[in-house]
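Thread title: Can someone regenerate the structure for this chain?

I was given the following input by a collaborator and told the matching structure tokens would be attached. They weren't. Posting the sequence so someone can regenerate them.
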Amino acid sequence: MKKIPLLPRSLHSAILLSALALGIGLVGTTASVVAHADDDDPELAFNGHCRECHAFDKGDNRIGPTLYGVVGRKAGTVPGFDYSESLKDSGITWNEQNLDQWITNPNAVVPGNNMGAIFSGLPDKKQRALIIKFLASDTKKKTGGN
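Best answer:
Regenerated them for you:
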């Protein structure tokens, strides 16, 4: 039986390192594709930007009030939550347009509000749109809309 010559050690190491780098690159690419697959998920946008302070369950006030049913609700009216006077007196009824403005910069919409002291706004238009889509989803369920 004829022996097949082995590759020189340095070439063998180079091939092994190249294969390893390719494998790591494929894993990284797969992880990136999976991560970006959820870029359009409204609930993930809400969880990533709002969930730290707000819940989406009826009656579950946290640092901020529950956002359940926020679309169509008068600002500053969730029972059991201590709102700033400026928000209670704002006269705002939440809709998609003013929620977008609010999430962009709460202080520009209602100066002196409590949220603006800890959240300066979300500049990413796509993320805001996804959050608002999520917030509107429970309102549509309650009213029978789509």
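The longest helix spans residues 9-37.
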